[in-house]
Amino acid sequence: MNDAAPAQLDTFSRRTTKLAVVGAGAVGSTLAYAALMRGAARTVALYDVNAAKVQAEALDLSHGVQFVPEATVVGSDDISVCADADVVVVTAGAKQRPGQSRIDLAEATIGLMRTILPPLVEVAPNAIYIMVTNPVDVVTYASLQISGLPARQLFGSGTVLDSSRLRYLIADHVGVAVQNVHAYIAGEHGDTEIPLWDSASIGAVPLLEWARTGPKGAFDASVREEIAHEVVNSAYRIIEGKGATNYAVGLAGTRIIEAVLNNEHSILPVSSLLDDYFGISDVCLSVPTIVGRRGVYDQLQVPLSDAEYDGLKRSADKLRAVARQFGF
């Protein structure tokens, strides 16, 4: 009995968390790299239909595991590589070309989800599924219906990255550390997204109060409008310049993964199915949401100005209309 105890302890200590990344393109491989660097999971599995590409990415990442928290990397074009994953992040999708809107991508990406989601759910039925492929809100809504998974178990990365862009721009304008800025983008991850200015703060100071009393940088309506415009359009500028956005979205995706695997109950603006959120239902879009090991918990009803509510409703109406276009 005494001999067995150390073995049992060793077995318990070796329990691993498994992250499966579907798609070994720019976003998928960067997300896997970010997850390894942050020690988000003990096993990172890459899946892609391009066998040579996915095996090369996995090998390249494996050669660097000496320099990151302990982890194992595997890659394959066989979907069984995702078996028993705790979290599945889907990055596969049609590539956004310069000048192309996210909605233009919907048809091709939804078609891909019809192909890959059923076998994924078969090999990893208990995983939390995070969609990181555009247009993320419509794809998330369609994927819920294609997969048959509960709404808490499958959601999109939403405006986690957009909110990070917003916080960066606010921090840069007023001259404070970005960690001290608390602000969210809500609605569509796209052209109709809205900054929630009324609930934003810098430190303990409401952002709209900072506009009058802050020690650096006026924060009037014109500045807010300029920042909101930059948040919406920055992805287009990056795509025009380098062909894809990958670093920040990889880090944003990893942040969501950590919230799930560590059961953090963190508040993140992910895209999930709404049911009577300020009267808005039957659409996936981003609002501040508690995220943990079981996926989506509560969606927080943050204070909204009339303009913010109207913007959120417009965003929902647009996304619902696009989903109906594709039969959902």
UniProtKB/TrEMBL annotation:
Residues 159-322 form the Lactate/malate dehydrogenase C-terminal domain. The keyword Oxidoreductase applies. Keywords: Allosteric enzyme, Cytoplasm, NAD, Oxidoreductase, Phosphoprotein. Beta-D-fructose 1,6-bisphosphate binds at R167, H182. NAD(+) binds at residues 23-28, 48, 53, 93-94, 115, 132-134, 157. Allosterically activated by fructose 1,6-bisphosphate (FBP). Its EC number is 1.1.1.27. It catalyses: (S)-lactate + NAD(+) = pyruvate + NADH + H(+). Pathway: Fermentation; pyruvate fermentation to lactate; (S)-lactate from pyruvate: step 1/1. The active site is at H189. Catalyzes the conversion of lactate to pyruvate. PANTHER family: L-2-HYDROXYCARBOXYLATE DEHYDROGENASE (NAD(P)(+)), L-LACTATE DEHYDROGENASE. This is L-lactate dehydrogenase. The lineage of its organism: Bacteria, Bacillati, Actinomycetota, Actinomycetes, Micrococcales.
